[in-house]
Amino acid sequence: xxxxxxxxxxxxxxxxxxxxxxxxxxxxxxxxxxxxxxxxxxxxxxxxxxxxxxxxxxxxxxxxxxxxxxxxxxxxxxxxxxxxxxxxxxxxxxxxxxxxxxxxxxxxxxxxxxxxxxxxxxxxxxxxxxxxxxxxxxxxxxxxxxxxxxxxxxxxxxxxxxxxxxxxxxxxxxxxxxxxxxxxxxxxxxxxxxxxxxxxxxxxxxxxxxxxxxxxxxxxxxxxxxxxxxxxxxxxxxxxxxxxxxxxxxxxxxxxxxxxxxxxxxxxxxxxxxxxxxxxxxxxxxxxxxxxxxxxxxxxxxxxxxxxxxxxxxxxx
Length: 317
Fold this sequence. Notes:
There is one protein chain. This protein is an alpha/beta fold. The protein has a single domain, classed as Metallo-beta-lactamase, Chain A (4-Layer Sandwich). Helices cover 19% and strands 28% of the residues. It has seven helices and 19 strands. β8 and β9 form a beta hairpin. The model has no long low-confidence stretch (mean pLDDT 96).
């Protein structure tokens, strides 16, 4: 890529894991990883919810100015809102919402989120393939429907839908939405289980072209890459972030690596070998990474690994 995106560096960033597959209230905090606070009457308060979904709240700071974006909204209609309430986290400075791709475990809470925000014209950045009606067909014959977001519901909430296949810059050029990720690795071969509804019936749709990541440039340290599912392949996502920005150092990776399930698990060793070459200093796998891959990441990258959990706040500075 001859012309790089001019992604301006941020002084710091805070990332709250709003929705994820896992919650553990007893995980210890560190200087940079703050766990959800405990209260004395723990059993009498509303509890954080974990589910098969993902959502992150990203707040950046540059020259004293703070602003936030929401990346995905989980599966349940009110899970993300519920967890934000339990965490007593307000989204007053929310400037945009980004949708990683069109699967229901990432957009299920969108309409409720916009209804709560009550701000007509809030930008929602997405890839146009998000609107595809999809299903998964498993080798044993089981099927799982993955409906797209409801355009009507989003229109009713006054959302400003921004469809973009290429990269976008948000928050005064400090947050990069990658757009469609280039596929260059030989071992990351999409999602073979997926089909899409067409006028000719269900057809293969293995590449999940709408899969897009979010990237920031942390001053003096390198790129922090957030990838909700990595259907493009986690390595492809990180390599694409490098190409777009012209910055080689990946300081941190946060999100799903989609290495769960019998079809994806065979590429765990190859993926982690490539990850070793990239060598992020912070790794926070979540959601669809899968327990086998997560255990291997924790074993091979012990100094970089951080166990994700709903309510965790990561501070990058």
